[in-house]
Predict the structure.
Amino acid sequence: MIRMFTLLALCCSTAVNAQEIDLTRYVGTVDQSNPLNVSFSAVPGSGRLLIGDGADAVTLELNGTDIALTENAPTPVSLQATNTLRATSQQTVRIRIKQVADIELHVLSRVHFNTNVSDFEAARAFYGTLGFETLSGFPDANTVAMAEAIGVTAPTEYDGSQGGEAGGYLLHGELIGVGGFSGGVIDLIEFTIPRNDEPPYDAVNHLGMARAVMHSVDLQADYARLSAAGVKFVSSPARRSDGTLFALFTDLDGTFYELAEIPGERDADSDSQIVGLGHLNINVSDFERSAAWYQMLGYEITRSLPAEESGAAAAAMGFSAPYRINGAILTHVEDGSTIELVEWLSPRDTRPPYPIPVNHLGIHRTAFSTTDIEADVAALKAQGVKFVSEITPCCDGPDSWGSIVSFYDPDGTIVELVEQPIMNAVFRVMRFFSNLFD
């Protein structure tokens, strides 16, 4: 009886990630040839300006007030909703302005990440070779409002003949996974209207979501099987300095994925030893800023990544020389999903992530489930987060089962929030029964 009441309470409760987060409001570099004159958002109140070596070479003005700088120590500053920063320097100096914020979001889990493809049938067969099965379909067409919610400029040339509203989008896709929804989900889509055939990122250090990891319990066997099937690998399997055995490959359009070996027993009844999805990689221009930003969504740093890798590991990632990074694995406090945040120091790539609409070939966006989308959007807007559109009913107009909204991370990578009451209840029940056997 106690278990039943606990289950009912869990199904009806609303999870809240309430925490104090030290957000970077601005970060940038000033030097003799590039003076700063920028605006940035904050919450009215106190903040801290941090500057490293070279403070005595900088002249800085914040919101019309000259600031006396302290080298390698925080300088208290007063911030407004919109701030103006002007600075000059006789040498290259990095400037960071931080502010502690109390933030409450209701994010329960990562729903999926999206991979766009140029030929759905061929791509679906390719992912089937990897062991992915269809978990669910979804409508090929939708409302104009839904098109605008994913950055599509409407009306489009779509005539409405295949369902949905004229002027919206036309696509075909499925949610696919290994081991059901609990093994991780890819939102696999071919866009017809609007269509974008530009190739995915050409290297794994490009800003944005450049690759995702698949877990294998026998990587050498999967490498041999997939190579024989024509899957293109960057190199043979290699080991990182932390001992991880991995191999990088691309799908039919050139989207990067990584096989990483984890402990586990082989499935004698299956050719594929891929057991699920691992972390989603998100490359960022400033690790400190992005780690705090994703903390708002419920992610905490659980493991730092090696700062340097050997030539062999670098070659397996597609580079001709050893690389240097600042990065970590972040784990969600509710569902345990993981993301890999990486700031590439060398080689560095500052090209921006895919722009809207979200139809670019490759991994274009990731979605998170929330129990209160309106409260979360209000909280994020209060922190200066930029949105693609307003909250939109998803996915049948006034008869929709939930709501969706898209927004940008600090580098412009597309993130979604989805409120879906039925799936939220299912997630809570799954978590409840999982906890029974922990």
